[in-house]
Amino acid sequence: MSQTALEGPEFPAASGTAKSIVIFLHGYGADGADLIGLAPELAKVLPDTAFYAPNAPHPCEMSPFGRQWFSLASYDPEFLRRNAETMPSALKALTQGARENTASIAAFIGELLSRHNLTADKLALVGFSQGTMMALQLAPRFDQKIAGVVGFSGALLGTDTLATEIKSRPPVTLIHGSDDPVVPVQASQLAQAALAENGFDVSYHERPGLPHGIDGEGLTIAAHFLREKLA
Length: 231
Hints:
By secondary structure, the protein is of the alpha/beta class. It has a single domain (10-230), classed as Rossmann fold (3-Layer(aba) Sandwich). Helix content is 38%, strand content 17%. The protein is built from 9 helices and 9 strands. It has helices spanning 33-36, 39-43, 77-82, 87-100, 102-116, 130-138, 159-165, 186-197, 216-230; strands at residues 10-11, 20-25, 49-52, 58-59, 67-68, 123-128, 148-152, 172-177, 202-207. Strand 8, helix 8 (186-197) and strand 9 form a beta-alpha-beta unit.
């Protein structure tokens, strides 16, 4: 696994005292600034939560100003939409990239828990797109059970080895637009099924007509989930 020290924008706890942590994991070609803007809204229901949005460790191969967690050179969303039944095997090609880059996030988690003198059950991951792939790759294989994972518009990679690699089972909520042209909505449906089959407490919320993005209702669902799990 490659490990690069992560850094990016942050939003301190509105109350002045951080009793919990949310880490945003951004999508392909973006950076931490793309998701840290969600923090002020979430802080309305999570005043004791500090928010962090690290930049992915690698420059994006398709965007000179963006970042990536791993390469998507072999990713073809149109093929996945046309061949939904082969989606698990098609996504398998991305698994190694995700696996090789979880160490940086794990180290970042450890750094933040130490900084705030908190335990893992007071930390949640919120991912979007490729960031969701990273969150779902890391959390079940992390040696401490975190408070939960919110996955927007993403996918679960490594389903074929998940059962033998599980170290903890944090609760998961998946939120996906029905009209997503980038990551087909079936990816979250398959993720829900695989996680449930492996004993995870997982919920799935489909946003009708939504393309690749986060809408107000999806953010409300995430806020309710985080407030419950970080209480």
